[in-house]
Amino acid sequence: MKQILLDRYGQPEDGLRCADVPDVGAPAAGEVVFEVLAFPINPADISFCRGTYRLKPELPATPGAECIGRVTAVGAGVTHVKVGDLVINLQRENWTQERRVKGEDVIAVSDGIDIQQAAMLRINPATALLLLTDIVPLKPGDWVIQNVANSAVGRLVIRLARPRGVKTVNVVRRESLFGELKALGADVCVIDGPDLAEVVKTQTHGAPIRLGLDAVSGRATARLSACLAEGGVVCNYGSMTSEDPVMSRSALISGGLSLVGFILGRGLATRSLDQIRAIYADLGQQVAKGNLSAPIEMIYPIEDIKEAVAHAQRGERSGKILVAPNGPV
Ligand SMILES: NC(=O)c1ccc[n+]([C@@H]2O[C@H](COP(=O)([O-])OP(=O)(O)OC[C@H]3O[C@@H](n4cnc5c(N)ncnc54)[C@H](OP(=O)(O)O)[C@@H]3O)[C@@H](O)[C@H]2O)c1
User: Fold this and answer.
1) Would residue 289 count as lying in a domain?
2) pTM for this predicted structure
3) Which of 22, 43, 154, 327 has the fewest CB atoms within 10 Å around its CB?
4) Would you say residue 282 lies in a domain?
5) pLDDT digits (tens, 9 = 90+) for 129-185
6) Centroid of ligand 1 to alpha carbon of 180 (angstroms)
7) How far apart are CA 4 and CA 97, in angstroms?
């Protein structure tokens, strides 16, 4: 079978190759084997390949934080999934054609779901949900501001905020995105820049903003924090600039703002397996109904992994880059 191997940390397309490796073999008791139908290339995967992610295993290693698969065999004692089921995998190393994992690591998703969207179910929808539930208690009428609003996470935040009555200010890098974000339910859309706080104040008529979601870092964190009401919270959950977040002392001391961090794994670790399965059952249904989705720009075969990761690093994409390791999905 084919599997992606990272031989050296650095520029991702230089360090990755598509290798022929032995098949995974039959499942032992309690294990599940599934074929990988599709996986996305997320910013965290790029950072993993660069060697700047929190996990830096010995090489060669196989990247891939998420995927959608179809079960091809189950070991003795596995009852919660069966052959033919679509599953997401809670474990990594998914840039491959086939996986053999512990049964408890896979969660079945409804067969009616769009396979391409299901490939992106594990990380970004749950991230968007927990950013809205776990950082500050939000009630209907509250305002949230976020940058990278046109990213997959950003779009999901807009979709999940709307039914909660939470209003969103959406910061992006180009005006041409305003129409599609407003169609998703964005209340206000603005362009990032030095005058962000004044523009946001005008657009929101000075409404207090309690939470800022930042995945750009660097000075962008300071610009976002300048939009928050006294006592507000900036949650840093990514760094598209590869910089550390910057906040002014006056925002922290005089403004009483807090800067906190979020990572999905820690958010899920506070929950039981049953609670995690319930979260994915709900998000999976919303994806199956089309309520939650992320646009896709291109799907590559696994052999073209270098082109795929190079594409995933381009700015101003219209959507995510996916790989379909076992043929078109
Ligand atoms: N902490 C967690 O648990 C967690 C989980 C999931 C995702 N994340 C983070 O969430 C962020 C979004 O992920 P995603 O998968 O939704 O992304 P995505 O769909 O691949 O979109 C990438 C986004 O980053 C923007 N961007 C790229 N380079 C930038 C720069 N130098 N300055 C400002 N914006 C830039 C792009 O804007 P343009 O269209 O203008 O290029 C686009 O909005 C990433 O930082 C990711 O690491 C964190």
Assistant:
1) no
2) 0.98
3) 22
4) no
5) 999 999 999 999 999 999 999 999 999 999 999 999 999 999 999 999 999 999 999
6) 17
7) 9
